[in-house]
Amino acid sequence: MWAFFHKLGSPRWFYGIAARLAPWCWGLALALIVVGSVWGLAFAPSDYQQGNSFRIIYVHVPAAFLAQSIFIALAASGFVFMVWKVKIADMAAAMMAPLGAAMTAIALLSGSVWGKPTWGTWWQWDARLTSMLILLFLYVGVMLIRRAFPRPLSGSKAASVLAMVGVINIPIIKYSVEWWNTLHQPASFTLTERPAMPTEMWLPLLIMVLGFYAFFAAFTLTRTRTEILRREGSKRWVKELFKEDA
Amino acid sequence: MSACSTDVEPAVVAVKEAGAGLGMALWATFQRDLVGVARRPADALTPLVFFAMVITLFPLGISPEPERLAWIAPGVLWVAALLSALLSLDGLFRADYEDGTLEQLLLAPHPLSLLVVAKVLVHWLTTGLPLALMAPLLGVLLALPQGSYLALSVTLAVGSGCISLIGAIGAGLTVGLARGGMLLSLLVLPLFMPVLIFGTGAMGAALSGGEWLPHLAVIGAMLALALASAPLAIAASLRISVHG
Questions:
Q1: Kind and range of the H or E run holding B15
Q2: Of A134, A144, A161, the CB nearest to B193
Q3: Domain extent for B43
Q4: What does the alpha-carbon distance between residue A215 and residue A25 come to, in Å, rounded to a whole number?
Q5: Contact B193 A162 (CB under 8 A)
């Protein structure tokens, strides 16, 4: 067990195992997203209140799931990197952060596109929207601090510390924003309390969520491989790898 | 205080003394920072003047009518306090970073995470606390209704403790960067938002005749959490900035 983790921490070993895993993840992601979106967009019944505009949840909800999961993954990677000095964890974190920020932005944008026909407004200072916006700011901070340092290693450590600080604050921000919102505007709209969805509605949603997670795994594996080559370019094993190929 | 010794010496000498305990090191750090502020009072006054100026902008920008001002006063006072904290946080470790004091603190045989608490405490005593004491005066200028002045001062005093602690993490991370101040504000403002929410919540409760102490209790809980966890992050961030 420990040997496995030890190996996983070595860029060379990870490079190999990621190469074998990535195609499966990409295939799974593609299959799930195609099935989920065709089912969700074309075959699922339309909502009796919202009509067809509800179908945006097939993008919105998975993106929001990933936006939050990726920040937790960033903090976990930061912890592994700071405590055990596992370089792979930091390389993966560097690759995950832009995807997380993009997912947060997609969740916000798709939410506001959905909000226009449903609520009649592009933006509401709803608790979820507000805490999602703050999450986007946290992502931006983590991405900026990584690039701010002249030495890449300092940037990696700084981003790790900030991700860990951010993840402790996320629940505090979430609850205080929810509390703030209920105080200021009682019961305007609730995203959460929709009537229980029929199976043919939530099953494609579940498939989409799984598809997005598979995409996240595939994307991180592939990009981390590239990052390994970029950072370890001067190592012997990388040079040998490309000598054989040539 | 002697006139011609450099700033670094008292703390370092105290720390190096044989058998110097942790308490002595903390006291020396605290004293040294306090002396540093006393010798350059302009640095401590700038955030206060900035606070007053930002407050002045709002009547000019929105309306001089007392009713409207009273409506926005709690939020404006709190937001201005956060912005002025950013201004002072930028300089929290900068002078120590430039003259090598931080390296001495890192070398000291005491946990850095405790020594920084002394530094943050001085920061709070010289920026947060004066600001909390000054805020009611500016509240009068904004026609803040009676009955909320105590809430304003007390919540600002406790809240600015949180802000000093959380902000010091960002200050530690950005101290070695060329344009760290800009980045600092992006990093720490999202983390300040819960304090703002409960600070203005307390004001709202006090203004509507409700109980504001529960809000203060939440801010106090945040302060307790920050006091327990932020020093570790501050120490880690200073190590990154000094050693890389």
A1: helix B9-16
A2: A134
A3: 9-243
A4: 7
A5: no
What is the complex's ipTM, to 2 decimals? 0.86
Q: How far is A146 from A244, CA to CA, in rounded Å?
A: 34
Yes or no, beta carbons of A145 and B187 under 8 Å apart:
yes
**Domain boundaries in chain A?**
21-190+197-245
A43 CB-side CA count, 13 A: 12
Our count of domains for chain B comes to: 1
Q: pTM surpassing 0.95?
A: no
With a cut of 80, say whether residue A48 has pLDDT above it.
no
B201 in reach of chain A (CB within 8 A): yes
Cβ–Cβ below 8 Å for A144 and B240: no
Compare CB distances from B193 to A153, A161, A173 and report the shortest one's residue: A173
Instruction: Please say whether the structural domain A21-190+197-245 has been given the CATH code 2.20.70.
Output: no
Partners of residue B225 in chain A, C-beta under 8 Å? 172
DSSP-assigned states of every residue in B43-98: HHHHHHHHHHHHHHHHHHHT---HHHHHHHHHHHHHHHHHHHHHHHHTTTTHHHHH
Cβ within 8 Å, pair B186-A140:
yes
Work out the mean pLDDT of chain A and round it to a whole number. 87
- The CB-side HSE value for B58 (13 A sphere, CA atoms) comes to 24
B241 to chain A, any CB pair closer than 8 A? The answer is: yes
Closest Cα in chain A, distance from residue B66 (Å): 22
Please give the Cα distance from B55 to B53 (Å, whole number): 5
CB A79 within 8 A of CB A88: no
B191 to chain A, any CB pair closer than 8 A? The answer is yes
Rounded Cα–Cα distance for residues B49 and B51 (Å):
5
**Smallest CA–CA distance from B192 into chain A, residue:** A173
Six token digits for residue A105: 């932005």
Q: Do B183 and A157 touch (CB under 8 A)?
A: no
Domain membership flag for residue B4: no
The model's confidence at residue A243, banded by pLDDT at 50, 70 and 90, is confident
B1 domain residue, yes or no = no
Query: Which of residues A125 and B49 earns the better pLDDT score?
Result: B49
Q: Which of B53, B74, B78 is nearest to B145 (CA)?
A: B74
Give start and end residues of each alpha helix (H) in chain A: 2-8, 11-38, 57-84, 87-119, 127-148, 152-184, 199-231, 236-245
**Secondary structure (3-state) at A51:** strand
pLDDT digits 0-9 by tens, A77-97:
999 999 988 999 999 999 999
In angstroms, the CA B62 to CA B64 distance is 7
